[in-house]
Amino acid sequence: MRRLTFLLTGLLLALSALPVAARAVAGPQSTPRIEAELVAMSAWAAPGSTAVVAVRQTIAPGWHTYWRNPGDSGGAPTLNWILPPDVTAGAVVWPLPGRQPLLGLMNYGYAGETYLPVPVQIPPTARPGTTLPLSVKVLILVCSAEMCVPDEMTLGLNLPIREGAAPLSPRVGAPIRTILDSAPRPAGITARVSLADGVLTLSARDGPLAEIADGPAYFFPYRSDLILHPAVQTGERGAEGLTLKLQPAGDRVAAGLDGPVEGVLATAAGAFEIRAEPGPPLPGTTGAGALPPIDDSPTTTGALVVVQALLFALLGGLILNLMPCVFPILAMKAAALSASAHDPVEARRDGLAFLAGVLVSFVALAAAMLVLRALGESVGWGFQLQSPAVIAGLALLMLAVGLNLSGVFHVGAGLQGVGSGPLARLPGGLGAFFTGVLAVVVAAPCTAPFMAFALGAALLMPWPLALAVFLALGLGLALPYVAVSLSPALLGKLPPPGPWMERLKGLLAFPMYATALWLAWVFSRQTGAEALGLLFAAGVLLALGVWLVGTGQGERTPGVTRRLYLAVGVVVLALAGATALLASVIPAEMAVTRPGGASSGPVSTPWSAAAVAAARAEGKPVLVNLTADWCVSCKINERVALSSARVAAALEATGTVYLVGDWTRRDDAITAELARHGRSGVPLYLYYAPGQVEPRLLPQLLTEGVVVEALKDRR
Known about the structure:
Helix content: 40-55%
Strand content: 15-25%
Shape: elongated
Largest sheet: 9 strands, mixed
Number of strands: 26
Number of helices: 21
């Protein structure tokens, strides 16, 4: 919802350039989000002087506006002046912005009350005793955690003209003067910037930095495409200045520096405008100790945001049961329900064990994700499936589950005797728990509706609240199965136990085989043909090993022979695991072929921020598809919607550039782009209409009609 309103911004920016026919009315104007007023710092202005007027913003609690570089999202305020003849307005004197972390993004802007001062040159011909009518048409994007609204107002001020120096305005003069005194300005600082090994090094010295105090420092670039704004900026003091280490944007790493870097360096000694020329780090800017980092983690989280995140996580988990990637696990749930349907005690045990498996797995996955992100890694939802080793292990695991359902072997029978103990079969207490673990692992490729906000919020919350959000997501995933297992009336509707249960169990093995084949295909896309051949060999060894184990579990097998079968089976299984591990570490370039290779589908080119910018600079619309081979929803969308002849024709008719970003293996640039739009996983579909400031986010589940209508809609 928040980013859909950005689509209005481009239109309003264009309209704001038109002349204003109506005369602005002096005094404040307001919306439910912001009150704005054009005010003067001094009580009057003298002929031939420079007066300072300012746009005063009083922003409602929970909302914010933006600096000249808004950061990862949003837009800077625009001022279009309507002035008398010979009166000219200068550039905005931007106050130092605040950092605004939000859902994995980092924005720069203002909250509460702030002023945007502007110098206005008064002509010498202005007559004392008169007033100059000043008006400005402002477009201010005002945002909260959930949405953004572009507020447009025409503000007016009748500025008195008198002789002599004017005192400060008793109402607003002092705060405007304070902003002017503290606003960043050049201060004789020498700066250099260099890009090496994926790190942007900014060094600065001289001027007020010659005796830099021990305190945090932060660099606010004027360009929004220079750095990853959410990344932590680390620094070091020197005898004559300081050095900052910044994480560059993905396309900047590939393209390198293209000239000087300008922005504001905020330090304990004040904030200063700097221009860093490309070059090696300056001497005297390191060696005196590390600068303390700036902690942008929120110390408190609004109750409303927490409740929303928990509710959306619960709903997202419920809907996750309907996503394609969870279908194989539904087969295991059905087998478990059919086995325990007429034993209420066993059904309750299985339901609660399944819930425990889901929750424990979600906590483990969330903890790993939060720890990696805290260490600076760019990971998102489904990050474990970007590892070929994990994919290989899952493929073999799904094959083993299918063979178990087919009756080739029985889990635990060789350990505790045939037909005895809780490990003797699936389902069971441990079997239900294991099914819950598998459900979480296999659900990772999917992001259901409502999950984007919940996951994005969780990654920004303190870790106890973040884990609570992930637990709510797991509860939603497990809730239907648990509800049925705890309802004797629903279980009683199933037919009584009989041979049909074994036939059903055997039938439900085939979704597991299909999942193993799909994972093998994903593995081939991540590695190559040679590694896939080794994975197939590991699969054959696995099948042989579990067959040997199953033979050793036979009731009529003599004891010595049984132990021999089990021992050989375990050795063969170990060989299967070693072969799979060898396959997963073979280096290979991933050759990705996207929809569009066939004549019926659209032609695509690889996504990058630079490719988007280049297409938009030419005035072309852009459709972005951020996808991954292990994302089942992505593949279905590509097959059903994005690869159709009708969509290809619409892309060609509208001149739309179709860009595809592949997240099958780790790509920090795509991870950053997902975070910029409040997402932690794929799919993500963006449509940039010509002239629009922000893209339109398309639904996560696409149809041909949705894509075609979006391409035709230029609003």
